[in-house]
Amino acid sequence: MHLHQRPVRRDELAACFEHLGEPWAFPAAFRTKVPGLLERWHQQGCLIGHVIEDVREFQTPQTVGLSLIVFVRPGFADDYRAGRIPFARAELVRREFQGESVVLNTREIRAANQSGGLVLLYFNHGLTNRALDEAALHLVHARWGDTFAELRGFRLKEILVEVHSALVRDWGLACGMNPRHACPGLGPVGSDGGAFRIFLAGLDPR
Fold first, then answer.
1. pLDDT, tens digit only, all 206 positions of the chain
2. Residue 117 CB: number of other CB atoms within 10 A?
3. Could you count the other beta carbons within 10 Å of the beta carbon of residue 76?
4. Domain spans of the chain?
5. Pairing between strand 199-203 and 156-163?
6. Residue 160 phi/psi, 5° resolution?
7. Which listed CATH number (3.40.1160.10, 3.90.550.10, 3.40.630.30, 2.30.30.40) goes with 3-162?
């Protein structure tokens, strides 16, 4: 593989999102609306996205990973961090469609960046190609660190990630993130039983 990381284009968001394969994370009434919401956020400057591509010579580049981030209001981050929101992305989308947005707009991002700092939340961070072998998976996950370089200029107070698999948990721990919460009744991340598990992780970038 020859991997390259670049900013996502707005016209790619719907296709990339569909390949993440996590429709269960959102209320049924909202699932078909999420790609359009992502496009709107991107157009308004509220969302930052990165694509990892396999750019082998003489072949059309193949998207293998997608990372989407937003900045959220402090109150939402407090509830998220304390474990009061078990599926944060679903709650974020629900509030958005009910007119109670917790995603910072560009004006609010600038204000927070000049004062107390920003709380970054990973809306999605995953593989868009699930057929990769173990070696290729390792290469893709190793490249996620490149996306942090694109966040220069942002005063990050905290980074929050919602995790649904042991593989992503291990990536987060390798990046220096610390477990913050395991949702009640869901058990430890990566435990047997076939069910998805969640924990919240935070990184103090200082």
1. 788 888 999 888 888 777 765 656 677 778 788 889 999 999 999 999 988 888 876 778 888 888 889 999 989 988 877 777 767 888 888 899 989 999 999 999 999 999 988 999 888 877 777 677 878 877 887 777 777 777 888 888 888 877 766 666 676 666 666 666 555 444 444 444 333 333 444 444 33
2. 17
3. 21
4. 3-162
5. antiparallel
6. -120, 135
7. 3.40.630.30
